[in-house]
Design a protein that fits this description.
alpha+beta
């Protein structure tokens, strides 16, 4: 449907030359062309935005470990309780970052906080 709009809008703009006199058709064609260009620009800018929902967004999420059992953990991510597989050492209360999904089971690793640097010189 979107492709019809993207291709059809300039064609509709050309058709005004058949039905209207040139002094009226030319400003209408330029207006339709500007609207088309603005719409293309809006779509282009939208492609660069980060994903906000779905499995792709979960890969950046940070959660908290509630309990561990072997290599499985119950983690609290985005106000939801998830089962997660992990490697390494985790305890209840640790922060984890989601690195992937396998069905409805998350793959997580311990969240490494960036060290706080101080610019103060003593």
């Amino acid at each position: 449907m979107c492709h019809l709009l993207l291709i059809g809008l300039p064609l509709v703009g050309l058709s005004v030359f058949w039905f209207l006199p040139l002094p009226v058709a030319l400003p209408m064609f330029l207006l339709i062309g500007a609207a088309t260009a603005a719409f293309y620009w809006y779509l282009y800018k939208g492609n660069g935005r980060p994903v906000l929902t779905g499995a792709e967004e979960m890969k950046r999420a940070v959660g908290e470990v509630l309990a561990t059992n072997g290599r499985l953990a119950d983690v609290w991510v985005h106000s939801e309780l998830w089962s997660a597989r992990y490697e390494g050492e985790l305890r209840a209360g640790d922060l984890v970052q989601v690195v992937g999904m396998e069905g409805l089971c998350l793959r997580v690793r311990k969240f490494a906080r960036a060290p706080v640097s101080s610019d103060r010189v003593d």
